[in-house]
Structure formats: structure tokens, C-alpha cells
From TrEMBL:
InterPro entries: FBL15-like (IPR055312), LRR_FXL15/At3g58940/PEG3-like (IPR055411). Pfam families: LRR_At5g56370. It comes from the Eukaryota. Residues 478-506 are annotated as: Disordered. This is F-box/LRR-repeat protein 15/At3g58940/PEG3-like LRR domain-containing protein. Residues 149-234 form the F-box/LRR-repeat protein 15/At3g58940/PEG3-like LRR domain. It comes from Aegilops tauschii.
Length: 506
């Protein structure tokens, strides 16, 4: 038989790939995704059989668990394996003894990077796999998924380990970290800590990332730490101790699952800190609070709890308040009187989150019980205020006046109105009169707190005290309407890094 090109079929029958040198064949095999696919190449020729054992990057995925350890024993060393990944299949089950035996064989290969991932119910009777972690002398990076680290045997050390990731694991973290003298990066995700304590003690650690379940104690001792990212939940209250004197980047968020931290009718939902070593980015303290009219008049514990989280300095306070029609001035003044806030606050942003159904505060409501309107407060560092969702009711004007009076260095104030107020000439005029009477700062009024097209109107009062006038937003330098919608909150809360939050105020 002959093709049109003149080539004979016999010419195509030759296996030219198998005639290549072993080094070239290994380069081909190295580009295949896992050992299971590599093993299928043996159907091409006997020449391919066993070549996989000379690969330096070996990945077991969807391979029957009982066959993994015998396969590992076929791997030739030296040179050492650069990457060893073991992903146990969902349908398999194994005993603790089998897994520990496999880990011992893996450690003998001295991989530079090691990954071991097991299904959540991989152990017999659906239990977690309990491991006694063997010594990985030359390994620089380890990732473990769904294991219980019962112990680290006496004398075991990880002298070269620089990066450790523990996903959905639990066990003795203290013992493990004490065996890692060169550890630089630690990732803990979905970790169940003993007695609900998050304890990290490492003299060499430079980066710590934590995504934890419920926690009652946070204790971090890391004198070399430069980057800290942590997200955790608390049911009642938390005790916090952080020793990280040179930390530069912080993303810290705590979610309260119960209405345990209260001030009057208000309860704390979330508290966060964001600090970036970047010019123009103010360190942020973020507080989200909501109203529950059924709360008993417990002793206020907002301030004590918030102060626990102040592990770094900040100069921007952002308050997200779900008011449900209630007066919020007392809460704002209560927070502003916290010493670390009042002394360092340069910028205040208040985002008023309204319910779809308009609610009104009932007569003699406890939210009006404090005398905040007559309180004096010193905000000597405050330079900018932004209120988003301003409705123009009396208690909001009272708060606005207080801020203008007690912030002598105030340079700019931005008020973004709700749609209802934007259409009310009376309330708009009242706002302008307040600005003219009480403040010398540069003032901006947006006619709606939702995003508006270019060319929408804004009221601007100059710092020199001239009469305000309407000008197009496009003509006001550096003006960009700012609004975080309530539906975006969950996504914002769970973002891992502060750098992902790019929207900036005007």
C-alpha cells in the first residue's frame, strides 16, 4: 500500500520515539500530568516500561492506594526527587498503619517538595487519618490535607523546611513548629485547634496565613513576622496576644457568630484590620455592627473587645452600620472615645446600610438613652469624614454637627445622600446650612449614595468659606463615587488579602 505522497506504510510503522535516549524520553514523560498517565505509555513499547521511576517530579493521582507504596519503592535515588505528590482517591480507605508506612517510604526519597492529600473520610470507619510525621531531612516545602498529626517522634526534625501548609488538619501544632528551625511561611486552613486555641510560636516565621474555624484564644509569637493574614470566627469573646514587632502587612478579620458583644441594642458582627506597606494606603480598622431590638440591656463590652484586636496601629476607621431606623450617634461617639481611636484617627467613614422595608425607631427606644449629644470628645487628628447613606433625619444632623465641632483639623467632609433626601430641597438646604455654620472644611454633597453617571451634581463648599455651588462631578478633581453594596459584603469579608480591595473613596 502506498500513500499519495509516495510514502510506504512500512515507513510509518517504525517507532522512532522509542529509539530516543532515556534522557529525552524522560523529558517527554515529565510533561505528562501524573504517574497514572505515564504508566499508560508502556503500551507503546517495552522500552517505556519502568522509565517513570527515574522521574524527579512524581505525582500520584487517582491511583489505587495499595499500589502507591510498592511503586515508591521502585524509584531510584539519587538524585533526590524534586516533587512528590500523593492524592489518595475518594473511593479508597486505609488504616493509620498503612498511611504511616507510606509516609516513611516517601521520607526516604528525600523530596524537595512533598504533598499528601487524603479524603476527609479516608480512614477506616470514616475516621481521620492519624499520623506520626517522619523526618523529611531535605524537604523545603510540605503540604498535608485531612490528617491528624498525633505526634512528632522524639529526635525528628525538619532542618530545611521553609514552607508548611496544613489544610483541614488538627493535632499538635506546637510540637511540629518546634521541629522547624528555618520555617518562613505557614498556611493553616480549616484547622481544628485543640481547646479552640490558635497558637503559633516560631522564631523564624516571616509569613502566616490562617483561615480558622471557631477560636477562643489567639496567641502568636513571631518576632520575624512581616506578613499576617488571618480570618477566624468567635462565638462569645476572644483573648488575643500577638508579638510581631516588625510586621508590615496585616489582613485580620474576626466574625462574631453570636450577639455576645453589645452596646445597647447594637451587637458586633465583624471586626477587621488592614495594613499595607504601600504609600497612600491608610491603615484601616473596620467594624460592622447591627441592631437587635430584642437585646437585653447588658453591660456594654464593645470597647473591651475591640481593643483586643488592635494588634497594629491604624488611622482610618470604617463603620458599617445596619441601623434598621435606629439612632446610631451614641454608638459612633462611644467608639470614638476609645483612646486608641480618638488619638490616632485621621479618617472616618460611616456606611449606613438600610433595609429594603423602611423602618422607624419606636417612641422611647433605648437607642436614645445616652446623652451623646452633650458629650465632648477630642478628635485632634481627624482630617476627613465620609458618611454614605445620609437620610437627613434630626439625629444624623446632630452627629454631623458634633463631628464638625470636635475635629479642629478637619479638612474634608463628604456626605452621600439617599435617593429620598436627594429629591428633598428642604433637607438638602439644611445640610448646606450646617456646613456654612459649623465648619470651615471643604465639603462635598452627593445627591445619591448609589453610583451615578458622570455629570451628576455635587455640592462643594471650599475651605475658604465661599458660598456653595453646584458643579458637575466630572469637574471636581479626584472625585469617584464610592459605595460598597451590602450584597458584596460576604465576598469582601472573605478576601484573603487587603490588596484585593481596590475601590477607593473620593
Amino acid at each position: 500500500m502506498e500513500f499519495r505522497s509516495g510514502c510506504r506504510l512500512g515507513f510509518l510503522d517504525s517507532d522512532h520515539i522509542s529509539t530516543l535516549t532515556d534522557d529525552l524520553l524522560l523529558l517527554i514523560l515529565a510533561r505528562l500530568p501524573c504517574i497514572k498517565v505515564v504508566a499508560h505509555t508502556s503500551i507503546l513499547s517495552r522500552r517505556w516500561c519502568g522509565l517513570w521511576a527515574h522521574l524527579r517530579q512524581i505525582i500520584f493521582r487517582e491511583v489505587v492506594f495499595d499500589s502507591i507504596e510498592p511503586a515508591l519503592r521502585q524509584i531510584s535515588c539519587p538524585p533526590a526527587v524534586s516533587l512528590l505528590e500523593i492524592h489518595a482517591p475518594e473511593q479508597d480507605m486505609a488504616s493509620t498503619a498503612q498511611v504511616n508506612s507510606l509516609l516513611s517510604v516517601a521520607a526516604e526519597l528525600e523530596p524537595k517538595e512533598f504533598v499528601a492529600s487524603f479524603p476527609s473520610s479516608f480512614g477506616l470507619l470514616g475516621r481521620s487519618i492519624i499520623i506520626d510525621l517522619p523526618c523529611f531531612h531535605r524537604t523545603t516545602c510540605i503540604m498535608l490535607d485531612h490528617v491528624y498529626i498525633r505526634s512528632v517522634p522524639v529526635g525528628v526534625e525538619f532542618p530545611m523546611l521553609e514552607a508548611l501548609s496544613l489544610l483541614h488538619c488538627n493535632g499538635n501544632l506546637d510540637a511540629l513548629l518546634s521541629c522547624c528551625p528555618r520555617l518562613c511561611t505557614l498556611l493553616l486552613s480549616g484547622i481544628l485547634f485543640e481547646t479552640c486555641d490558635l497558637r503559633v510560636n516560631s522564631p523564624s516565621l516571616q509569613e502566616l496565613v490562617v483561615n480558622s474555624f471557631s477560636t477562643e484564644h489567639v496567641n502568636i509569637v513571631a518576632p520575624m513576622l512581616k506578613k499576617l493574614e488571618i480570618l477566624f470566627t468567635v462565638m462569645l469573646e476572644v483573648n488575643i496576644s500577638v508579638l510581631a514587632p516588625i510586621v508590615e502587612n496585616v489582613w485580620w478579620y474576626c466574625c462574631y457568630t453570636e450577639e455576645s458583644i453589645v452596646f445597647g441594642l447594637w451587637y458586633l458582627e465583624l471586626l477587621g484590620l488592614q495594613v499595607e506597606d504601600r504609600q497612600g494606603q491608610l491603615p484601616l480598622l473596620h467594624i460592622r455592627a447591627s441592631v437587635d431590638s430584642s437585646l437585653f440591656p447588658y453591660e456594654p463590652n464593645f470597647a473591651q473587645e475591640i481593643e483586643k484586636h488592635m494588634v497594629v496601629d491604624f488611622s482610618l476607621l470604617e463603620l458599617d452600620l445596619k441601623t434598621d431606623g435606629h439612632v446610631f450617634g451614641a454608638l459612633v461617639f462611644y467608639l470614638l472615645q476609645i483612646n486608641q481611636i480618638s488619638s490616632s484617627l485621621q479618617k472616618l467613614k460611616i456606611l449606613l446600610l438600610r433595609s429594603v422595608v423602611k423602618e422607624e425607631c419606636p417612641t422611647d427606644c433605648p437607642c436614645e438613652s445616652t446623652n451623646w449629644r452633650s458629650q465632648a470628645i477630642s478628635l485632634t487628628a481627624l482630617e476627613e469624614v465620609q458618611i454614605n447613606g445620609f437620610e437627613g433625619v434630626d439625629h444624623e444632623f446632630d452627629l454631623l454637627k458634633q463631628l464638625l465641632v470636635f475635629a479642629p483639623k478637619l479638612k474634608k467632609i463628604i456626605v452621600k445622600l439617599t435617593q429620598e433626601v436627594s429629591s428633598s430641597n428642604t433637607r438638602r438646604t439644611k445640610i448646606y446650612n450646617v456646613f456654612e455654620t459649623y465648619g470651615s472644611a471643604e465639603c462635598f454633597v452627593y445627591l445619591s449614595s448609589v453610583l451615578r453617571p458622570r455629570g451628576a451634581s455635587s455640592y462643594r463648599k471650599s475651605a475658604c468659606g465661599t458660598l456653595g455651588q453646584f458643579t458637575p462631578l466630572s469637574d471636581v478633581s479626584a472625585q469617584r463615587p464610592y459605595e460598597r453594596k451590602d450584597s458584596e459584603y460576604l465576598e469582601y469579608m472573605t478576601r484573603k488579602s487587603a490588596s484585593r480591595r481596590t475601590t477607593q473613596p473620593p
